[in-house]
Amino acid sequence: MKTFLSIALIVTGFAALAQVRVPSPSPAGSVSAVVGLTDVKIDYSRPRIKGRKIFGEGTGFVTPYGSIWRTGANNGTIISFSDDVTVEGAKVPAGKYLIFTWPGASEWTISLYKDLDLGGDTQHYDKTKEAANFKVKSEKLTEKVEMLTFNITDLSDDSKTAKIQMAWENTSVKFSVAVDFDAKVLKSIEASTKVSPNSYFQAAVYYLETGKDLKQAQEWINKAADANPTFYWMYYQKARIYKALGDKAGALAASQKSWEEAKKDNNRDYVNMNEDLQKSLK
After folding, report:
1. Are 170 and 140 in contact (CB under 8 A)?
2. Same-domain status, 163 and 47
3. Phi, psi angles (nearest 5°) of residue 131
4. How many domains does the chain have?
5. Could you list the residue range(s) of the whole structural domain that residue 135 is in?
6. 179 contacts 37 by C-beta, under 8 angstroms
7. H helices of 18-70, where?
8. What is the DSSP string of 207-264?
9. Other CB atoms closer than 10 Å to residue 18's CB: what's the count?
10. Over the stretch 20-54, which tens digit does the pLDDT of each residue have?
């Protein structure tokens, strides 16, 4: 009897170890991007159309209009933010959230859900655990998307906003994410300029680009350029700062210095940029 029991345990053990691994019908997907200084990441499972009707009115569709959807397969879709953000006007703390949606013909309701333990269990959805709930317009796609796809797109020039896009079948839905990195940058400037004089250059350009104290930017760029007299890119930014302050003579002198050093280095881009800048000063 003991021998039989031992053999049975061994066979059971081998059976547990010898599980066959096969591709998932809804394979895992992930997309990430840095928006400003904030890491944004989406982890999800990607179902296929497989000839089905996905979004529409009535029970003949996988996700009927007005019905709650886990916005993916398996345990649903998780979006994470490394910093506090604003999602479609709603303040959302740093952290991880499930994305739930209620599709519609032209408008979708989307929520970010705080309790990750819910997974894809839409039946036990608790509205009190929402971090945000908002509506966005949907768009019709001209080309069919076979597998559910998330993208982080439409990053603004100032890196302060981006769009989260979900596309599947012939439908696309986007919602906005806005970040605020000013306090982080200012704190970094304060710390780094005490350690590395070269950080004055980055600090000065940031102040110029964001419309902050130009006198402070001037002080920093002068320190950076004086310490690096052959760095034409620094003198170019110095010229821009002087121009913004209304000092055309100072801007022209700095630009001429940048032009001369760029020409020695055969950097045609900076030669052209300085020539254009000098024309704008006349």
Report:
1. yes
2. yes
3. -90, -25
4. 2
5. 24-178
6. yes
7. none
8. HHHTT--HHHHHHHHHHHHHH-TT-HHHHHHHHHHHHHTT-HHHHHHHHHHHHHHHHH
9. 7
10. 776 777 889 999 999 998 999 999 999 999 999 99
